[in-house]
Amino acid sequence: MPRNADATRARLLQAATDEFAEHGVAGARVDRIARAAGVNKNLIYVYFGSKEQLFDAVLEAHLTRVHDEVPFTAQDLPGYTARMFDFALAHPEVVRLSSWYALERRQHGPSPTEVAAYRVKLDAIAAGQRSGTPGARFTPSALLSFVFALAGAWTVANPLGVPVDASDPERLAEARRAAAEAVRLLSAATPAADGDAPLGPPPPTSTHQDA
Question: Where is this chain compositionally biased, Low complexity type (predicted)?
Fold first, then answer.
């Protein structure tokens, strides 16, 4: 791709990141994206095909960025959680994009990049469990879900978490420690204590009506 085309595509991706993070796929407007990028809106369709495909390209770019900037080590899930906490706090737009993706695009199936990224991590966790670290009390998919949920729980972009004031370093440090410590406990290799066994299936629901 010529250098000018690369620069145009990069400007479109940056403008689209801001627009999609704020408005989601349905609420985003190609006119605003093109105006912010300083290009004709027809170039969006030339480079990406559609608004939806542009969103997918934006998300793919950020998934690749997370993979490159936040190294994953299955034997140190608490450390990975802390690094993901830092990334999510520094880049709330990525958390917002992930939320919009779950709401508006996931029904179309995960992207190849997403599948590959998760597969590598899940395989690494499974291999680690066979060696004893992390522990095998939970499945690899459960552990990875815990990591991502806890790493992003305190960001302002998470609609379900309690955000931490980014200007309060003590509260930020405490939230970071709490996320990492929770994952350490969940991924511990030691067996559960008596009375703290993993939850079994829920009891059957009674079909009888109360008298």
Answer: 187-198
